């Protein structure tokens, strides 16, 4: 029996151990998609205690605690931080097989030099140890990032954002980590949402122009794209409920926009047509700038309406959509490709049933001179698990070219989550090592070691156009 989480954690063969320890472990981190606060990096804040660091805004952990029947007051309510931490410590031992169990103990080891197993009995000792460490200057947000060997961070930012904190970091000679904004125009596309006209007014002010017609909307978005580019942005992100398409959408979009701006409610097919048209327009802008376009889809958000009304979005009450998206995805990518406006693209589905079709789609839209222009993104959200990552990478290997893969991202709001890259790299090395040990690939450690380094870091850096 293996010890719990020793140096060969998740590495089941000598080949896997060689690939991880000799190659993957040494690579820096490019966390090209996350939700950490640029303000907190710019101000180099310190985390008040382990509850703030672990449970503040982390709906992954909240879901585990809720599943043990804990009162919401002790999770997101007015209970003390110590009580909230205790409830997490009491719930965690039951979460066998859940990645949060592994992430939690990797974070204890890597950031706090703590080999204790978190449970109700150890909670006091872990609480004291972690809080004592967090009080040290070496555990400020910037030092956590440095300690994690992070070279690049992509935050998630609305087009109307001033990007003041990104600008402050760019001007700070003491800070050498590349923190870039990500252009996330969801609110400019979500015409079915309440308050859409109010948002358009804010976008109008940010761009310094009136927005009355679809061409005005496009011009305002271009204005903000240029603004983001001036601060180093090279990547966008779109959160779609599902992949959507409507024939003739580009001709329909103007009338739909004007209808909504008059206060009329759009029909479902109009929402789909408008969003598809804006996606095609923005894809062309991204392609002109050599940016990367990310599309995340397949979430059914806020499925518990009572809790949504009580706590709002992003609090752990979401699910996986079963919407069939392949036909719309093909048409959307085809429309972009026909117009010469298909940029470098990363596709993520929250539904693991989409893994095979996404992996198979990539080869149909690749480009000469650019390995892996179209990417199947790493296991996302509910798929960010050991089995989810193995499934995503196995489908990618089966249907496409694993060696082109741009690897892992945290998609996290926590500065302690960089150990997820280690978790991913161990799983990657074990998967490849298993194929070698099983005689399915030659034991060419030099070649495979370089491939592992590329998937861990180099491929994503090249994809985004960074220098190192």
What key phrases describe this protein's structure?
single chain; 20 helices; 48% helix; 4-stranded parallel β-sheet; alpha/beta; 468 residues; 3-stranded parallel β-sheet; globular
Note down, in words, how this protein is organized.
By secondary structure, the chain is α/β, with parallel strands linked by helices. 48% of the residues lie in helices and 8% in strands. The protein contains 20 helices and nine strands. The strands form three sheets. It has a four-stranded parallel sheet with strand order 4-5-8-9, covered by helices on one side. A three-stranded parallel sheet has the order 1-2-3. Strand 2 (150-154), helix 9 and strand 3 (178-180) form a beta-alpha-beta unit. Helix 1 (14-22) packs across helix 20, helix 11 crosses helix 12 (214-229) and helix 17 runs parallel beside helix 18 (386-399). The longest helix is centred in the middle third of the chain and has 22 residues, at 268-289. The radius of gyration is 23 Å and the shape is globular. The model has no long low-confidence stretch (mean pLDDT 97).
């Amino acid at each position: 029996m293996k010890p719990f989480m020793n140096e060969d954690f998740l590495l089941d063969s000598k080949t896997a151990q060689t690939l991880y320890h000799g190659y993957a472990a040494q690579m820096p981190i490019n966390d090209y998609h996350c939700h950490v606060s640029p303000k907190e990096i710019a101000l180099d804040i310190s985390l008040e205690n382990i509850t703030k660091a672990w449970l503040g805004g982390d709906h992954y952990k909240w879901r585990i605690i809720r599943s043990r029947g804990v009162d919401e007051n002790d999770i997101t309510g007015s209970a003390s931080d110590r009580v909230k931490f205790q409830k997490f410590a009491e719930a965690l031992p039951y979460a066998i097989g859940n990645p949060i169990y592994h992430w939690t103990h990797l974070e204890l080891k890597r950031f706090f030099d703590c080999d204790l197993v978190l449970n109700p009995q150890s909670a006091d000792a872990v609480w004291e140890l972690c809080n004592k460490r967090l009080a040290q200057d070496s555990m400020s947000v910037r030092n956590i990032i440095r300690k994690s060997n992070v070279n690049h961070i992509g935050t998630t930012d609305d087009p109307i954002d001033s990007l003041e904190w990104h600008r402050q970091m760019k001007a700070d000679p003491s800070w050498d980590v590349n923190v870039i904004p990500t252009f996330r125009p969801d609110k400019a596309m979500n015409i079915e949402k309440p308050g859409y006209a109010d948002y358009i007014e804010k976008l109008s002010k940010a761009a310094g122009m009136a927005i009355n017609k679809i061409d005005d909307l496009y011009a305002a978005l271009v204005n903000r794209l240029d603004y983001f580019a001036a601060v180093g942005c090279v990547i966008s992100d779109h959160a779609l409920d599902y992949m959507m398409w409507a024939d003739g959408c580009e001709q329909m979009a103007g009338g739909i926009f004007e209808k909504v701006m008059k206060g009329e409610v759009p029909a479902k097919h109009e929402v789909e047509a408008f969003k598809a048209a804006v996606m095609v327009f923005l894809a062309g802008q991204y392609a002109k700038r050599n940016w990367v376009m990310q599309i995340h889809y397949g979430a059914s958000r806020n499925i518990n309406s009572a809790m949504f009304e009580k706590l709002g979005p992003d609090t752990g009450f979401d699910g996986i959509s079963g919407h069939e998206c392949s036909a719309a995805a093909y048409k959307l990518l085809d429309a972009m490709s026909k117009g010469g406006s298909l940029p470098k693209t990363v596709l993520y589905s929250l539904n693991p049933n989409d893994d095979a079709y996404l992996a198979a789609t990539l080869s149909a839209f690749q480009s000469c001179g650019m390995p892996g222009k179209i990417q199947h993104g790493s296991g996302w959200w509910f798929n960010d698990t050991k089995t989810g990552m193995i499934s995503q990478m196995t489908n990618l290997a089966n249907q496409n070219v694993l060696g082109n893969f741009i690897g892992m991202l945290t998609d996290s709001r926590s500065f302690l989550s960089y150990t997820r890259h280690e978790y991913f790299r161990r799983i990657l090395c074990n998967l490849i090592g298993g194929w070698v040990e099983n005689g399915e690939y030659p034991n060419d450690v030099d070649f495979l070691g370089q491939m592992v380094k590329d998937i861990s870091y180099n491929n994503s850096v090249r994809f985004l156009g960074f220098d190192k």
